[in-house]
Amino acid sequence: TFPMKLWLLVNSPCVHSVRWDARGEGLFIDQGLFEQELLGVGLSAAGEEELFKTKNFGSIVRQLNLYGFHKLTVSPPSSTIGSRPRGDTSYADGPLHHFWNPHFRYGRPDLLVKIKRLTKANKEKLDAGLEVTSRLPDDLQ
Prior knowledge:
It is found in: Nucleus. By secondary structure, this protein is α+β, with helices and mostly antiparallel strands.
């Protein structure tokens, strides 16, 4: 699922375009770097399996919105620490986006089941005050 992919990306030491915010309650996405690193924009992704079925960053933002992530205004880079120390905190590649979801937290993969795609049926359940959950992949049980 999309939230699971996001979780694996933000916690991967190999991925530099997606990282936790200082409090571990949201994530920063460096758009330019994300496009190069994960969408294969400007690169020939020969033989590599595509992580996302799109090369359009706007489609990723739409997915985030569909799964209940909210965009926050970005504070100056000096106030971000990220999940891994990096000497330079400037992100010259492109716009930096800050997204937040109440169930996407550092060190809490158990909350991922609460992140649901906002389909018409799920929205009706939520509006009625019912809980909407999904199963965690077996490796996170």
